[in-house]
Amino acid sequence: MLGDYRIQGRRATEIAADVERALAHGELRPGQPLPPLRELAIELGVNPNTVAAAYRLLRDRGVIETAGRKGSRIRPRPAGAPRDRLQVPVPPHARDLADGNPDPALLPALAPALAVAAAAADRGPVLYGHPAADPELLALALAGFRADGVPSGSPAVTAGTLDAIDRILASELRPGDLVAAEDPGWGSLLDLLPARGLRIAPVAVDDAGPRPAAVAAALAAGARALIITNRAQNPTGAALTADRAARLRAVLAEHPGTLLIEDDHGHGIVTLPFHPVCAGPDGRPVTERWVVVRSMAKAFGPDLRLAVLTGDRDTVGRLLGRQRLDTGWVSHLLQRTAAELWRTDAAPVAELAGAYRVRRDALLDALAARGIAAHGVSGLNVWVPVPEETGTVVALLQRGWAVAPGARFRQESPPGIRVTVATMAPGEADRLAADLAAVLGAPGSGSRPV
């Protein structure tokens, strides 16, 4: 089962550490089955409960997965091997369209807003015991939530969307719980879930968002939480329509105990309307536990590390309780900077959305002209299904284009590549489409497929 390698250790912590060491050194491989716990207990001369405890530790750390009588095995992608490592180094001559970043030229100048925040800090320094959230930032965020039909709830400020989701999952779920997540979906989230010891129920996505039948199947299978992206979905650019949101609410109405987390990181860079799933036209929450999160990363810059959220009182209260126990709060310098940027409308949404839409449409049109299907309703990225990822990525790199392999974002969905169009210049879309057509052997390209 393990070849020449033999697990060592007498205590649960020693056994778990030995498995992690062997994985790090290549003596164990992703997907490799582990011995049945009773068999390993006999081999090590320890109580089966000791091996069971070791396997629980490994599962909680996102290293292994268990499937009842089918036994335990190393996860296909252990928590110690994050998805952002699945990339090809970008040589100096290549155009980097793989990073997922916004266009720096479209980000607002930070110096004036930072100066306002610093002056406020000079007048009234934030000390221990100060409220965790900046009142102006909360007022702006809550006004936006109300305008978009989000129910009245409790607010909070976190160090980005992933920080918010991590805190919520830590307080609401236990290792081994099943979480429904988009497939393809956000790679960082797909890393976080197994790192928390949570199991993933992949939910198929199309241009209108998560497919209701896939969500229904995941919830029927026992998923305790559903995490969805409202707009600018990473990597496909999907955006919820009013009809899709209504159909998802109907599914959730049959599972009111589900924890619903809505990620609206596209807020500020898209003009497509926000269609909440957490509540319908009557304003009443569909589920007992719900949260809507909005990040500043794409509109104001990733380094701002800030997100605002609202949700039901109990869920947000537990999040704030965990926050008080570690960081305490998000720096008010950052919060006041974000509020100033938001208040002064330093980067009008229509301007940002328009610029990114032109770049997406240029690539989508150029690909369509060559018979290549692609997706990108909103946001910074275009998703292109391909028959085989590695060969496509390498061949494009040889032609001077660095794109992201779909393996960074997929669970069970078919292969694809993600192209970040945020900084694409006029003319680049047509050249990239021509090169991709040649790589794929599309009709009229004059080349054989990879």
Strand order of the largest sheet: 4-11-10-9-8-5-6-7
Percentage of residues in DSSP E strands: 5-15%
How many β-strand runs? Answer: 15
Low-confidence stretches: 446-450
The main pleated sheet reads as:
8 strands, mixed
Our Rg estimate from Cα atoms comes to 23 Å
Based on secondary structure, the structural category is: alpha/beta
- In helices, the fraction of residues equals 25-40%
End-to-end C-alpha gap = 35 Å
Give the overall shape.
globular
Q: How are helices and strands ordered from N to C?
A: HHHEEEHHEHEHEEHEHEEHEHHHEHEEEH
Count of alpha/pi helices: 15
Tell me what you see in this structure:
The protein is of the alpha/beta class and 450 residues long. The protein has helices at 12-24, 37-44, 48-60, 110-123, 135-147, 161-172, 187-195, 212-220, 242-253, 297-300, 313-325, 332-344, 349-369, 389-398, 428-440, and strands at residues 64-66, 72-74, 95-96, 154-158, 178-183, 199-206, 209-210, 225-229, 259-263, 289-295, 307-311, 381-385, 401-402, 404-405, 416-420. 39% of the residues lie in helices and 14% in strands. It is globular. The two termini are 35 Å apart. Residues 446-450 have low confidence and may be disordered.
